[in-house]
Every structure is written in C-alpha cells, then in structure tokens.
C-alpha cells in the first residue's frame, strides 16, 4: 500500500513539474500566470494529489479520505482536460511537448493509482 501512496505523490509532482520545464524559451508557468483561471484549474488538479499523498504517507493507519481527495483532483483534470480524446489518437503522443506529456502522465496515472487506493484501503486501518 505504501507504493500506491508514493505513486500518488509522484504523479502529482510530475504534473506540477510540467509547469517549470522550459520549452521554446518559456515555461508553461509564465503562461499560467497571465491566465489566473487556468492557473487555478492547474493547481486544483495536482495540489489535492500532493496533499492527499503526503497525508497518506504521514499517517498510520492511513485513512481513505486522502485518496479520495487525490482522486477528486486528478479526475477533475481528466474531465477538464478532455483526456479521453488522447486514447482515440495515440499516434499524437510522440509529437507532444514534454510538458503536456507530463500533464497527461500525471493526470491519467494519478487517476489510476487513486482509484486503487480508494478501492483497496490500507489493511492496517
């Protein structure tokens, strides 16, 4: 179960780090600063996973609510980002910028491991 908690954190950090990787002379974060609504959406996707993963790792036995919090954030990103469209056109994956690829990996991976964490709670709880 500890691996699942760590993976929730890893996917949240991967998504957040995508904003700070430079591409074509600028970072995605600078663009987000000019669009406050998009910045809030971006933070609403990955910060709950970061908080949920950290709380789950820090408490023993781990309650279920951190996994639900993380799932809510990642699921919001999946729906807001229309990420199901990625599955219909997998040929575009090699052409995506690394920042966008990290966002996709963070959200889709975060949704999957959060679902596992919710469905299979900590056995010591």
Question: Can you describe this structure?
Answer:
There is one protein chain. By secondary structure, the protein is mainly α. It is 71% helix and 3% strand. It has six helices and two strands. The longest helix is centred in the middle third of the chain and has 23 residues, at 36-58.
Uncertain segments of ≥5 residues (pLDDT<50)?
none
Q: How helical, in percent, are the residues?
A: over 70%
* Secondary-structure-derived class: mainly alpha
Question: Ends: how far apart?
Answer: 11 Å
Per the principal axes of the C-alpha atoms, what is the gross shape? Answer: globular
Report on the biggest sheet.
2 strands, antiparallel
- Strand arrangement, major sheet: 1-2
The number of E-state strands comes to 2
Beta-strand content:
under 5%
Q: Secondary-structure element order, as H and E?
A: HEEHHHHH
Q: What is the arithmetic mean of pLDDT?
A: 88
Radius of gyration: 15 Å
The number of distinct helices, counting runs of at least 4 residues, comes to: 6
